[in-house]
Amino acid sequence: MALTPEDVVTKQFQHVRFKEGFDPDEVDDFLDEIVVEWRKAIAENEELKAKLAAYESGETPAEAPADAPAEQPVVEDVPAPVPAVEQPAASSTDLAPAAASAGIIELAQRLHDEHVAEGKAQRDKLISDAQAQAASIISEAEARGRDEVARLEAERVSLEGRISDLQQFEKDYRGQLRGFIENKLRDLDTTGVSAGA
Asked: Is the CB of residue 46 less than 8 Å from the CB of residue 82?
């Protein structure tokens, strides 16, 4: 696949479901494609530099030395070495692959910057949402706590009133019971005295 700068600009990644961002495998695959195309451009650039050097030295391409760098094979994980070839002046042939490479780098950098800015914006939004939610939860908990304290205070007052009523009832009941028992004892004494007489 010939990768163009427009492909880099228009590339869409799938959003993952359970976290923010893009699918790392899809991004890695696309970056691998960029590396392959970039290495092809570098190899083509080196080949053109070799041809230019051969033309400038007066040789034809068939007469070019055998040790002139040929198109290098593309290796996925190892970057292709870029030999330094001095040239007296830049020609329009050299500028095309270099400009394409610079364009790809610039587009990749711009995409990177956009994604970083978008990530920072999402981070800030998530933080502000979380802070707002935390403040809401805290205020709800405080309101619930105040309601619960008020309810318990009312219940305490009610129980204290009931305890006071029960203590008064106990006092009255003891007084009545004492009076009843004393009356019965007097009755017994009176009955015992009259029976003894």
From this structure: yes
Alpha carbon distance 123, 137 (integer Å)? 21
Q: For residue 99, what pLDDT is reported?
A: 72
pTM exceeds cut of 0.90: no
- The DSSP output letter for 61 is G
Q: Are 3 and 35 in contact (CB under 8 A)?
A: no
Q: What is the DSSP string of 95-144?
A: HHHHHHHHHHHHHHHHHHHHHHHHHHHHHHHHHHHHHHHHHHHHHHHHHH
Token pair belonging to 45:
């650039």
Give me 32's structure tokens.
């691998």
**Contact (CB, 8 A) for 108 and 84:** no
Distance CA 13, CA 83 (A): 35
87: helix, strand or coil: coil
Helix (H) or strand (E) segment spanning residue 36: helix 24-56
7: exposed, middle or buried (Cβ count in 10 Å: 0-12, 13-18, 19+): middle
